[in-house]
Amino acid sequence: MMFVHASASVLRQTARSSSAAALSYLNARSFHITPLALEKLNVEGLAAKVDLSGKNVLMRVDLNVPLSKDDDVTVTDDTRLRAIVPTTKFLLEKGANVILCSHFGRPKGEIIEKGKNGRLNPVVEPLKTLLGVDVKKVNDCVGEEVEAAAKALNKGDVLLLENTRFHKGETKNDPELAAGLGKLADYFVMDAFVQPGYLLDKELKYLKGAVDDPKRPLCAIIGGAKVSTKLPVIESLIEKCDVILLGGGMIFTFYKALGYDIGKSMVEEEYVELAGKLMKQAEEKGVKLILPPDVVLADKFAEDANTAIAKASEINGDWMGLDVGPETLDLFKEEIGKCNTIVFNGPMGVFEMKPFATGTITVAELMAEATDRGAITIVGGGDSVAAVNQAGLGDRVSHISTGGGASLELLEGKTLPGVAALSEA
Ligand code: AMP
Predict the structure, then answer these.
(1) Could you list the pLDDT tens digit for every one of the 425 residues in the chain?
(2) Please, which residues have CB within 8 angstroms of residue 151's CB and are 6 or more apart in sequence?
(3) Is the shortest distance between the CB of 322 and ligand 1 below 6 Å?
(4) Which of these, 96, 123, 227, 380, could form a disulfide with 52 (CB 3.0-4.6 Å)?
């Protein structure tokens, strides 16, 4: 884990880049952090060096948990919450007051009351249970009220700050926001993806190993809805993988590139051309980039929709594709069965609604079967991790990555600056 003395200037530098995408928190070069200012200690190291008793420790964590589509409140998978327990508990045992700070979704600088981009209220109760202590929450992450709450903390208290992305500055390197955070604490602990602690060690071992020196054939199963974030990953996976299986809402952008009628399915028009290029690129490299041959259609985006199964090339104009079909799953089974390393990131369909969960759950099961026969299997991304856990298969894959976007960046072949900084240490 990474510890930085919370002098305003250092925090300013560290907090500047606190978006998941800009994982350059710890990039000593770009932030001109001197080795003295940025101490690369683990928690035990810090506790041995300074007396944390009664000190405020601001901890950057990743609380991006999935919420139930039914009520927009219930946490459907607490993997990320459980991931912060060891560090938090350690600090509390040392008498520190822990201030937790995380972004939640993408509110883009606006205050959103509820849901995936909203307030962090849904994690309060689960955190209380997991940590076994009271968790107070404030409705902002900086400002006078927050400062007062931070000052009032007593030995062993936990304070959760509001979704940092309610402030535009969170993704825009705003020094004011960073200075505001700097007023809250004596020490800064990085326990999101880039900390050199328990999480990162595991992430690196599996993810880097899987991509740089895989047991071949290497297969990536990529799903989800956000084409814009997945295409760069697919592009670099084409350089590394033997097989790439695509699912989720993004497949319709590929079908569009093939000239298919996709009905009312989701599409990101501005990426249609790039999707077409990627298919060509894969073909030239001899990489199997496989699109689902059939899909589950719905007449509306709802749990009680009428459904039908159709060939991807025969989607009727009024319908929308919300999951991959049975023929696809047979084909995926065959391909996965031939591979020795399999990475799964992003759901195959709208798995939050039962009629469209089969694709994702089946892929989770295929991952478990592959693990049983000795393949290395890695699941990354909040939704796919949730699906694997929902299916009760969390302990039947080699590695569950809590890194979310960061794990995708690793797959993409980007060196995370935080990791680079560590290697230099
Ligand atoms: P992402 O954050 O890009 O990994 O996307 C995850 C989301 O994609 C989940 O909430 C799914 O419900 C959604 N999704 C998956 N397949 C589809 C689809 N065919 N149409 C619409 N949304 C989808």
Answers:
(1) 233 332 222 332 233 223 222 222 322 222 222 222 334 456 677 787 788 899 998 888 889 899 998 899 999 999 889 988 888 998 999 999 999 999 998 898 899 999 989 999 999 999 999 999 999 999 999 999 999 999 999 888 999 999 999 998 766 656 778 778 888 988 877 665 433 344 445 555 666 677 677 889 999 999 999 898 889 889 888 988 999 999 999 999 999 999 999 999 999 999 999 999 999 999 999 999 999 999 999 999 999 999 999 999 999 889 999 999 999 999 999 999 999 999 998 999 999 999 999 999 999 999 999 999 999 898 887 788 888 888 889 889 887 776 555 566 666 666 554 444 443 33
(2) none
(3) yes
(4) 96
Q: Is 17 helix (H, G, I), strand (E, B) or coil?
A: coil
The full length of the chain comes to: 425
| Ligand-binding site membership of 118 (annotated) | no
Overall pTM > 0.70: no
For ligand 1, whether the C-beta of 248 sits within 6 Å is yes
> For ligand 1, what atom is nearest to the CA of residue 265?
20
Which residue's CA is minimally distant from atom 21 of ligand 1? 249
Give the separation between CA 384 and CA 348, rounded to whole angstroms.
Answer: 9
Q: Atom 5 of ligand 1 has which residue's CA nearest to it?
A: 224
By most ligand atoms within 8 Å of CB, the mutation choice from 253, 345, 383, 388 for ligand 1 is 383
Q: Which residue has the tokens 């993997």?
A: 79
Q: Is 372 exposed, middle or buried (0-12, 13-18, 19+ CB in 10 A)?
A: exposed
Beta bridge partners, 311, equal 294
> Which positions are catalytic?
80, 226, 382, 405
Cβ-based neighbour number of residue 163 at 10 Å: 24
Q: Is 384 annotated as a binding residue?
A: yes
Q: Which atom of ligand 1 is nearest to the CA of 321?
A: 19
Place of tokens 């919370």: 6
Q: Which atom of ligand 1 is nearest to the CA of 66?
A: 10
Q: Is 352 annotated as a binding residue?
A: yes
- Of 175, 165, 145, 157, the C-alpha closest to 8 is 175
Pocket lining: 226 vs ligand 1, CB cutoff 6 Å: yes
Residue having the nearest C-alpha atom to atom 6 of ligand 1: 224
Distance CA 279, CA 258 (A): 10
